[in-house]
Design a protein that fits this description.
Blueprint (H helix, E strand, L loop, with lengths): L3 E5 L3 H10 L5 E6 L21 E2 L1 H10 L5 H8 L2 E4 L4 E5 L2 E2 L9 E4 L2 H15 L3 E4 L2 E6 L4 E7 L9 E5 L2 E4 L7 H8 L6 E4 L4 E8 L9 E4 L10 E8 L3 E8 L9 H9 L5 H6 L3 E2 L4 E3 L4 E4 L11 E3 L5 E2 L7 H19 L6 H24 L12 H17 L3 H11 L11 H9 L13 H10 L5
Parallel strand pairs: 1-2, 1-12, 2-8, 5-15, 12-21
Antiparallel strand pairs: 3-7, 4-7, 5-6, 9-10, 10-11, 13-20, 14-17, 14-18, 14-19, 15-16, 16-17, 20-22
Helix pairs in contact: 1-4, 1-8, 2-8, 3-4, 8-9, 10-11, 10-12
Amino acid sequence: MSRRAVVIGAGLAGMLAAAALSSAVDEVVVLERDELPDGPEHRRGLPQGRHAHLLMAGGLAAMDELVPGVDMRAHLLAAGAHEISLSSGMVAWTSEGWFRRWRHEGPRMFTCSRALLDWAVREAVLARTGVTVRKGDVRGLTGGPGRVTGVRVAAGYGSGSSREEDLDAVLVVDASGRGSRVLHWLGALGVSGVRERTVDSGLVNATRVYRVPRGAERFPLTVVQADPYASRPGRSGMVLPIEGDRWMVSLAGTRGGEPPADPEGFLRYTLGLPNPIVGRLISGAEPLTDVHVSRSTSNVRRYAEKARRWPEGFVVLGDALATFNPAYGQGMSVAALGARVLARELRRGGAGAPGLARRVQRGAARPVDAAWAMAVSQDVMYPGTRGGRPGAADHVVAAYTRRLTRAATGSHTAAAALWEVTSMRTGPGRLLRPDALLATLAGPPLPPAAEPPLTPREREILRTLDHVGT
């Protein structure tokens, strides 16, 4: 058998999987349907690409382990990304009030456009490995129910040709994203019984990019979070610093509370959020783009790790395995953590080791479990959500989460536990450790903040930018 590995999809998950494979096989070929841009530009096959994305600390740590010889933090900063402390660099309104900003150091996240992040990771992988990217439309898998031996690719893709050719591989990784046809491909080989679940809150994203006003270059990331416990549609907004001295302003609303696509309605929506700070900031900022709207936001999970039969030589990662409501900022980090599982299993036994694919799917399910629990436990609370209703366990989790969040508005101990889980440096069990439990039961030792936690300079910037009613 060929010592070649094939990765389907050249997005973030695909390039990280390719990096993981690069030291374990003789050749790694990444097949991508889209034309890939030469720089940090949006591409058609990424429906959420124009909206806000967050790379959490856990995802960055996984990337550092995957891409040989590259300090990913320095690489992303050099490309133009922003590094933001969850403890001090963010102004956040929650269902339980304002989070305080602490002097204590906490986990950090990176913000930039998705186009920049994908391009920066792709450039790093291609520069440091022998991975090659080819344009190709994968029509199916080759092999049988016991082993996948390669992929079937449309020959002359893009020229209208209907001919197909087979590309042999010792290992195939499906990282083709939200639109993956993995269940169809497996079915054609005689593999069935992979359960799939969808939980859809009907969330709609609307995003517009603005020029950062003069003097506001260091204004903190600002977010008004949705309230899943109010028995009404969730509505949220975020001002996210990205490369090129720009603000990416992303709004999100669940079924019945969707943000509009017109500029005037966009601003009205921000001012109608539970706190109008996002609208006040952008009312005096110069828009650089139209409003971009996307509806590809449902949580979809394929339980590959629980399938009764799973073929050797085939792995599913990234959005092809599970997608999450993007409001929670987990998808990129989950993809990186899944690729790290692949890398570690490859180091243990090599690409052709018996049971490798099954072990990778089970390992990749762990970060998926954590992200899925966080997203779905909140999404089922919104009215009109399809595919799930809150049960007794969901209500217990919601009650604890609300109490923990309330404590975190005035307790550094409770806030630190939330940061650790949100940043994906640890799993949800962190919220049940004795220190977090005690802080949750005790409640916030500091009184709730009546106003956004801004410095005097930041308050002055907000006043200067606030053109509402003028």
